[in-house]
Amino acid sequence: MSKTRITIIPGDGIGPDIVKSAIQILDHAGCDFTYDYALAGMSALDATGELIPQQTLDLIEANKVALKGPLTTPVGKGFTSINVSLRKHFELYANVRPVRTFAGTKARYCDIDILTIRENTEGMYSGEGQIINDERTHAEAKSVITRQGSERVIRFAYEMARREGRKKVTTLHKANILKTTSGLFLEVAREIAKEYNDIISEEMIIDAACMNLVMYPERFDVIVTTNLFGDIISDLCAGLVGGLGMAPGANIGEHAAIFEAVHGSAPDIAGKNIANPTSIILASIQMLQYLGMNDQANHILAALKTTILEGDRTTRDLGGNGSTDEFTQAIIERL
Q1: Which NCBIfam families does the UniProt entry name for this protein (predicted)?
Q2: Which of 9, 85, 132, 182 is the Cys-Cys partner for 174 at CB 3.0 to 4.6 Å?
Q3: Domains of the chain, with CATH numbers?
């Protein structure tokens, strides 16, 4: 039986260091993958003159699953977000961002377990209708919401909630003001909710949701929303559990999936062996769950939890004095 092949995109800045950590842990957990390495971001631009070389796209297409470190999109005209480009190219319509509290961190809350599912290809990030006049005094952008796009991500959210034994799905919207775009998303959500009588369905205006997430985060279970709202809310949720270093992300479509660390490339600490690899480790756990390798996923999660709780070799942002390598080794020893 042939090994599962995973496309590895080390990324920029601290990306190679933390991706190396995740791969070492996957190997020690007995995952037995074959890795195909590919370039994207500044490292790809320097080597090939392209932010996303065709070879990288071909490898993702062939393997169907990728693990990706943080990428840097150059600031300035002519450069489209690499992450947005990958999501569009492979129709990765569902962005899955789980957050949970880990005992031993500096998180403000305990017992947080929220799953945000964000539509990943439409809305304000569709890139359509972006214009600015010559005087740069007037700018426009168009938000595009479709019934098909709304239905597939909302159904995805309910199916994931059911599969994970979750109790409630909350649809976030702004249909009181954005009556067409957000209104259509909410209309579709109400229709689909009727098919899932085993799950509590709730709807909440986005600004009220932000307030409630800060005051009563325990009220939330699964959140589903449009692209821009989801981008903001998922980072807010990460803040509840200690920041982006504790939050992974998955981009899932019908034919491919990319799992990633959601934080930046942090070039100021690149190569210093002090970066916290938790985000990419959690992303690799999402990848294992996607592949149906739940035993390995659970083993890694348990080892990570224990390492953070005991705190003897965690990185500085987690309150310890350990290096990236020492933190990784501590997890491996507990597998």
Answers
A1: PRK08997.1 (NF006529)
A2: 182
A3: 1-112+242-335 (3.40.718.10), 126-240 (3.40.50.2300)
